[in-house]
Amino acid sequence: MLKKYIKLSVLVIVGALVVGCQSTKPMTYTSKKITGLKTPESVVQAKDGRIFISEINEFGKDGDGQISVVNNDGSVAVFASGLDDPKGLAIIGDYLYAADKTKILKITPTGQVSEFVPATAFPNVPYFLNDLEADLQGNLYVSDSGDVFNTGKGGAIYKITPSGEVKLLIKDTQDARVKAPNGLLADDTGNHLIYVDFTSGVLYSLNTSTGALTDIAEGLGGGDGVVHHSNGTMYVSDWKNGKVFSVNMMGDVTLVKSGYQAAADIAITKDERYLLVPDMKAGELDFIPLTSSRH
Q1: Which residues pair with 286 in a beta bridge?
Q2: How many Å apart are CA 160 and CA 165, to the nearest integer?
Q3: pLDDT over threshold 60, residue 3
Q4: Arithmetic mean of pLDDT over the chain
Q5: For 107-157, how does the pLDDT look when each residue is reduced to its tens digit (9 = 90+)?
Q6: Sheet holding 234-238, edge to edge
Q7: How would you classify residue 16: left for phi > 0, otherwise alpha for psi between -120 and 50, otherwise beta?
Q8: What does the angle CA 212 – CA 205 – CA 222 come to, to the nearest 5 degrees?
Q9: What CATH class is the domain 3-289?
Q10: How far apart are CA 260 and CA 281, in angstroms?
Q11: φ, ψ for residue 242 (rounded to 5)?
């Protein structure tokens, strides 16, 4: 695909991305590094400023996973417990959703957990549900990174309607470039879904109607999380190499910060002042200031 066409596609797609960060006033919340977390994987901020973190704890051990909340005063508390290996998080309305191994959980404002989408609702039982994303219409998107650490097969991306109906968008047997889909980013039309592949380190745009993939950027290592700033910049974390990159509207990649042990599923604060970076192996949540010089 011609680079000129790729760059034009990026401009069009980024222009339609969901912008959930419209606050013009700084929010009240701590920006101090949070430590002592139990294998933090994903993070998301609610409209009231609270920050939710999924903690896997011990991989493969059911029942020891949890969601913690960082309150506006900086205190950290367990919000929901008894999960298995919770990863991607998304908020729709007042409810928090979590990808947990082979199912999707729905969590009430008081921390009550229920199964929203069981493994049996998928066309095939998922291998490794990973990132979770919501669009403006109340749909969820979830990546299945497949048997990423063994056969490398089974990668897929699904769309979940507000009623819990699951639709396959793309899988590895349809396009060889689909290896281990991870971080997701939806636009406000539902027509495109940006995702980064953990195995190839390539950032793609997926046409959700046709299944067509467009390359946006490469060289992103073990691509994990993807977020979008209202100025058009995207940020991508590299779990394998402990880095965070920015990707501009032309598809150019720039290193923002390195030195993490395992930079997992990132988020951006509602006021767009910070990137939130869970360092899985270090057990920390870091805050990267987004200054004008970095934009």
Answers
A1: 277
A2: 5
A3: no
A4: 91
A5: 999 999 999 999 999 999 999 999 999 999 999 999 999 998 888 899 999
A6: 223-228, 234-238, 243-247, 253-257
A7: alpha
A8: 120
A9: mainly beta
A10: 9
A11: 65, 45
For residue 154, the SS3 value is: coil
Q: Could you give the CA distance from residue 14 to residue 230 in angstroms, rounded to a whole number? A: 9
Instruction: Read off the tokens for 135.
Output: 């669009």
pLDDT in tens, 28-40: 677 889 999 999 9
Contact yes or no for 11/249 (Cβ under 8 A): yes
pLDDT (tens digit per residue) in 180-190: 999 999 998 88
Residue 81: per-residue pLDDT: 98
Measured between its terminal Cα atoms, the distance across the chain in Å is 28
Buried b / exposed e over 221-239, threshold 16 CB at 10 Å, is bbbbbbbbbeebbbbbbbb
Query: Any idea which residue has 């973190």 for tokens?
Result: 53
Confidence of residue 26 (pLDDT cuts 50, 70, 90): low
Of how many residues is the chain composed?
295
Which residues have C-beta within 8 Å of that of residue 286, sequence separation ≥ 6? 33, 260, 276, 277, 278, 279
